Amino acid sequence: MSINPDLVKAGRIASETREMIAGSDIVGRTFTEICDTVENNIRRLGAELSFPCNVSINEVAAHCTAPYDGSEDTVISEGDLVTIDLGAHINGYLTDTATTVSANPDYDSIIQATKDTLDAALRIVKVGIPAGDIGRVISESAEHWGFRPITNLTGHSMEQYQVHSGTSIPNTWTPGLPRLKANTIYAVEPFLTFSDGSGLVVEGGAPRIFGLVSRRVTGKKKLDELVEEVWRTRRTLPFTPRWYSHLFDKGEMKDVVKDLVKHGVVRGYPILVERTGRPVAQFEHTFVPTETGAVVITG
User: Fold this and answer.
1) Is 189 annotated as catalytic?
2) Is 284 designated active site?
């Protein structure tokens, strides 16, 4: 089986970056410091970002990155459960991977359970298996460990320059979903919370990550300047306004982004949190299914 060499290289870069940040001491570091470390390393190794580095702590599950609007930066404490979700791409061939770490031994069990659940899911992968069967394994593994999967977050298929391209890989048994296809890129990402949690996420914070919906001209110079720069560097891939802070005076970016959302040119991805405030852990790999198993691109 031949896999695109750009995808293979992007997977290696994402994996190396994930292991680098997972093995470093992040206690006392800010979200901005962590994101800059991850993003700069991916670029240094010869790739671009599939999306802004996500740093999620405790009950936060997804879509959280360093602030761009002057709001207070978060500092990691010894008691935090920290998930870092990152991706690298080369020529639009995308990878997506995540790890969860903590200096708090109270979280050792959920970290190991989530990692083991990802491994269990990958063991059943092959061409033709229904995506819902992977969800069944994730749910059964989570319950075996005494945890609960987050049911309204899913893995996904990916295509060139598309992080989510149509097929979902659920974290619980879901009938009627498509079967995995050969020569297709997927990400599987179990999210687990404690048994007394709801197993659901809800919106819990204003967006820090955005995506270009349209290249439509607004007629407002600053708005159109940002749109053109995002299109040039990202096309429709997710971005964070902090990457473009050099374009505007301090304090302007928040209003520019707000106006672009209002005009329907840009959409925001709200921060997602566990509905009852229980901590969430996540592990994730990008893979390509074969007739006999999975080629894990970010392994």
Assistant:
1) yes
2) yes
Q: What is the DSSP code (8-state) at residue 177?
A: P
Instruction: Say which of 85, 89, 133, 285 is annotated catalytic.
Output: 85
* pLDDT attached to residue 125: 98
One domain for residues 169 and 239: no
Per DSSP (E only), the strands in the chain are 48-49, 54-57, 60-62, 81-86, 88-90, 93-94, 97-102, 147-149, 155-158, 168-169, 185-188, 191-194, 201-212, 266-274, 280-282, 285-289, 294-296
Tell me: the pLDDT tens digits for 235-282?
999 999 999 999 998 789 999 999 999 999 999 999 999 999 999 999
In CATH, what number is assigned to the domain containing residue 232? Answer: 1.10.10.10
Q: What is the pLDDT of residue 70?
A: 86
203 given a catalytic annotation: no
141 in Cβ contact with 132 (< 8 Å): no
96 is catalytic: yes
Are 12 and 136 members of one domain? Answer: yes
Of 197, 216, 203, residue with least CA distance to 272: 203
Using CA atoms, how far residue 27 sits from 56, 82, 102, 106, 175, in Å, is 14, 10, 9, 16, 42
Catalytic-role residue among 69, 143, 159, 164: 164
Which of these is catalytic: 39, 59, 96, 274?
96
Structural domains of the chain, count: 2
Choosing from 39, 59, 133, 189, the catalytic residue is 189
> 3-state secondary structure string, 19-73?
HHHHCCCCCCCEHHHHHHHHHHHHHHCCCEECCCCEEEECCEEECCCCCCCCCCC
**Given 89, 156, 274, 285, the catalytic residue:** 156
Phi, psi (rounded to 5 degrees) for 33: -65, -40
Verify that 99 and 57 share a domain, yes or no: yes
| 63 part of the active site | no
Report d(CA 53, CA 41) in Å as an integer. Answer: 11
Per the annotation, the verdict on 263 as an active-site residue is: no
